[in-house]
Write a structure and sequence with these properties.
elongated; DNA-binding; two-stranded antiparallel ribbon; homodimer; mainly alpha
DNA sequence: CGGCGGTATGTGAAGTCTCATATACTCACG
DNA sequence: CGTGAGTATATGAGACTTCACATACCGCCG
């Protein structure tokens, strides 16, 4: 049920339409959640049915009429309860990482090529994440920087033709 | 369709039962994927129906008969194709992070308490991740270490009563 | 012998997610 | 005037995910 709560959290800042919410989620991966519009619309319906948000239609300068949702007192209560729940680390769910990990059984040239591809993704994402002063943004930046450094270290180890394990020794 | 491919990847190392696969996934979060048994069993059925794995029943020293799956040539081809697909960064999907981010609008004592709770999770996980010499494990370790450092920096900033933004200045 | 804990397989319901597809309104450009 | 781009809402299929529950086999301990 996280998506509904995340939407409630966004709405608690300012009323918004499904479209607005999607834009805000996609713009800032540091928020920790994203979803398709086709998930967001039914989720807003459920929130409406449950009385956690209210709806006001208003015509838009462009396109069809906007459906603007805002949090009700009941929604605010629900949000507060959700925020107070105990934390847990997320279940890993990253197809790219899974493939990268399986690749370790492949040949070095292949691994190098794929690692560089991944490094490119990280570099692009780091640039996108360059702005913003929230704690969550700072977290995202340092994580991307760390992963970039990791990719470089693994590349270097591949080039050197060794495994970069704790067993690796300085040559005497 | 990632779960099926991840299972194929695990099976390509050694034949295994659904139970085995679940254990291997849960033991190593650095693999980038985990799933419930109730997902794994139907996924194995689909792989079987598709001819990507074969099945051999064998009795187990304990418990009901094991159903051991192994990759077929067709499965190996499918795995290879999947591994060759282009990479992409995963869509953010972390309820804890989402709550942590929303918390930034709360009061400092509250934020400090929650941040410390999160820090505790990270520290535990880092300990669990301490072993292993694969690149994926090294990645996980440096990421956890970085996040731990981030949590400490944010805590310190909260204590100091300022925002730790780029606007923060050395005192004159 | 009876129950407990670990191994091992499953089902079902409800919600989530991805991907494809459809509709409709407005503005700008050619 | 037509067409494409951007805004905005929506539906459906199929797979994925979570959680609760059910079943069964084995050895061990009291």
């Amino acid at each position: 049920m996280s998506l509904s709560h995340v939407l409630l959290g966004l709405l608690s800042t300012a009323p918004a339409s499904g479209w607005d919410l999607k834009r805000r989620l996609s713009e800032d991966p540091a928020r920790g959640w994203d979803a398709d519009l086709s998930q967001i619309y039914p989720a807003l319906r459920r929130l409406l049915r449950g009385g956690f948000v209210s709806l006001k239609r208003r015509r838009s300068p462009q396109g069809p009429p906007r459906r603007e949702y805002r949090v009700t007192p009941s929604g605010r209560r629900e949000l507060k309860d959700w925020l107070a729940e105990p934390y847990a680390l997320p279940r890993p769910h990253d197809a790219t990482l899974a493939r990268l990990a399986l690749l370790e059984r492949g040949l070095p040239p292949d691994r190098m090529r794929r690692l560089q591809e991944y490094r490119g993704l990280l570099a692009d994402e780091l640039q996108r994440a360059a702005t913003g002063t929230t704690a969550a943004r700072r977290r995202r930046r340092v994580l991307l920087e760390t992963e970039l450094a990791w990719a470089d270290a693994e590349s270097a180890a591949l080039l050197a033709g060794r495994s970069l394990g704790p067993a690796a020794k300085e040559r005497p």
